[in-house]
Amino acid sequence: MTRSTLTTPPPGAEPPKTHPDGPSAGGSLGSHFSRCFGCGDDHPTGLHIAAVTPDGASVEAAFTVGESHQGAPGLAHGGVLASAMDEVIGMSIWLLRKPYVTARLETDYLLPVPVGTTLHLRAWCTGIAGRKAYLEAEGRVGAPGGPVAVRAAALFIEVDMTHFAEHGDLAALQAEHQDYEVNP
Ligand SMILES: CCCCCCCCCCCCCC(=O)SCCNC(=O)CCNC(=O)[C@H](O)C(C)(C)COP(=O)(O)OP(=O)(O)OC[C@H]1O[C@@H](n2cnc3c(N)ncnc32)[C@H](O)[C@@H]1OP(=O)(O)O
């Protein structure tokens, strides 16, 4: 991975501490919002990514590139592939059960990805330093051990729930996250 210093854990970064309420090894993560472009069941042209965690710390998912995900004819759009990386990375940090947002996402495109390809995605955290989480992801063609087509490194920043309430759709947030107390 060609990653910058901004997405490389600094000396002293700690390994992530998974939350007891997160899924245990082998469990599925579910969608965080039904209309999310990355994971929402109700998004008509979204990626519909459904992830599992093999070990309680990283996530795995499969995403099949569809007609609505094209850039060049017959090939996946690079922004869509970056979205898939962002989504699985977002899912992997959600294992900590703390809200984080993407601050920086670096993506390497190694192979063209034709429509109809199933990408096997994996994401994991490489370190936590204060509010900063350092994460990586990869997408492999055809099988979990297939050739790597796309790689990403990211910096996510921890926010509190008021971030979503103040900047987003509070009613939609409350409808799907009744377990969170939001005081905008
Ligand atoms: C829905 C409810 C719950 C579910 C949640 C599940 C989510 C799943 C979602 C799945 C979808 C996937 C997820 C999505 O798609 S999330 C959607 C895309 N992301 C966003 O919309 C985020 C927009 N940005 C912001 O809101 C603010 O800029 C944030 C909150 C990130 C920071 O503003 P804030 O005012 O809070 O903090 P700060 O500015 O003091 O910065 C703090 C530190 O961070 C460093 N820094 C900041 N930016 C960068 C940068 N770009 N590169 C390098 N470093 C950066 C900064 O230098 C400082 O470092 P230091 O000086 O302390 O050393």
Automatic annotation (TrEMBL):
<dbReference type="InterPro" id="IPR006683">
    <property type="entry name" value="Thioestr_dom"/>
</dbReference>
<feature type="domain" description="Thioesterase">
    <location>
        <begin position="74"/>
        <end position="140"/>
    </location>
</feature>
<keyword id="KW-0378">Hydrolase</keyword>
<dbReference type="InterPro" id="IPR052365">
    <property type="entry name" value="THEM4/THEM5_acyl-CoA_thioest"/>
</dbReference>
<keyword id="KW-0809">Transit peptide</keyword>
<protein>
    <recommendedName>
        <fullName>Acyl-coenzyme A thioesterase THEM4</fullName>
        <ecNumber>3.1.2.2</ecNumber>
    </recommendedName>
</protein>
<keyword id="KW-0053">Apoptosis</keyword>
<keyword id="KW-1003">Cell membrane</keyword>
<comment type="similarity">
    <text>Belongs to the THEM4/THEM5 thioesterase family.</text>
</comment>
<keyword id="KW-0443">Lipid metabolism</keyword>
<dbReference type="Pfam" id="PF03061">
    <property type="entry name" value="4HBT"/>
</dbReference>
<keyword id="KW-0472">Membrane</keyword>
<dbReference type="GO" id="GO:0016787">
    <property type="term" value="F:hydrolase activity"/>
</dbReference>
<keyword id="KW-0966">Cell projection</keyword>
<dbReference type="InterPro" id="IPR029069">
    <property type="entry name" value="HotDog_dom_sf"/>
</dbReference>
<keyword id="KW-0276">Fatty acid metabolism</keyword>
<feature type="region of interest" description="Disordered">
    <location>
        <begin position="1"/>
        <end position="27"/>
    </location>
</feature>
<keyword id="KW-0963">Cytoplasm</keyword>
